Amino acid sequence: MLTGMAEKKTTFGLTLSNRALLTRGIQPKDLIDMAVQAENSGAIDAIWVGDSILSKPRLESIPLLGALAAQTSTVKLGVACMATIAQRNPVLLALQWASLDVLSGGRTWLAACMGYPASQHPMAAKELEVMGIESKERPARLEEMIQALRVLWSDEHASFRGKYYSFQDVNLLPKPAQQPCPIYIAGTPRSHQIGDGGVERSLRRIARFADGWMTNQIELGRFRDYVGRLRSMLLEEGRDSNAFKTVLYYGISVNADRDQAFREAKSFLDAYYQKDFTRQGVEIWNACGPVRHCVESIEGFIEAGVDHVTIRPIGKDLSEQLRIYLEEVLPALHP
Q: Using CA atoms, how far apart are residues 24 and 271, in angstroms rounded to an integer?
């Protein structure tokens, strides 16, 4: 991705549904084949996978990315987002991710987030309980984890002392191939959930600790607003706003019949997230309808200046949705 604002070009990714192994009968080889197909198209810059431990069972993200690293050679490999980062040990995670970065030739993108609070879903509460984490600890743990990873990845005598994570004089080897190894923060804070102050703290956390921001389930106007606020905060933090990247995690369900596209998307998402999505809940982060509708939905964010858009094809036939994304949607976005 180019840093010069005048020459900025949006790049595109593919988000694989690694939970579909359990919800749709997709096989591991299918996921790998989709990634290879996407890379071979020449239009995809990154492959992303999801993350959870118990709350939404799936193939664990790091081994899956390792398998993808072995079968690809150019695409970036990311986790969108690592919802369980606050539940992990920083030294072990630092070694796992550094190893992945070395094995892939420096192709990793780590997008970290806090995951669901315990109050939002019983399985999220169970996951936090089993991992020994209080839900209220998640924001501070996320901040500490990012700081701990950075020092482990860069210092020969890494030391860190926080409230939740501490270590002394650790020389983690191998170090990542990328120096620095990028860490984004994923999230879409909303005032009605955490108040205006909570939104301010969330955006400040991103501006202070992250190399970029990943978002989903976001309206175009809110995206523009948050990008503007983040740019201002980055300047206040003494950071280069042109080096900071934005990523949109979006979905498409393509069908000439918009109602049918919605029904297929809702069926997929209800099973995937164990929820009963409303139409608004589906369409705030998934374009459902003909190719032209999906293209126009994505174009709004491109015009708003997003650096990278990663698309998750969803619906009844994932292979066909992927084909449409690669062969019909992307060419329309690259005239």
A: 9
d(CA 239, CA 243): 8
Closest by CA to 82, choosing from 108, 121, 102, is 108
CB 98 within 8 A of CB 153: yes
48: β partners: 15, 78
Q: Which domains does the chain have, with CATH numbers?
A: 5-333 (3.20.20.30)
Q: How many whole angstroms separate alpha carbon 315 and alpha carbon 253? A: 6
Contact by Cβ (8 Å): 10, 246: no
Each residue's pLDDT tens digit, 227-261: 999 999 999 999 999 999 999 999 999 999 999 99
**Six token digits for residue 112:** 């970290």
Judged on CB neighbours under 10 Å (0-12, 13-18, 19+), 60 is middle
Q: What is the mean pLDDT of residues 118-132?
A: 93
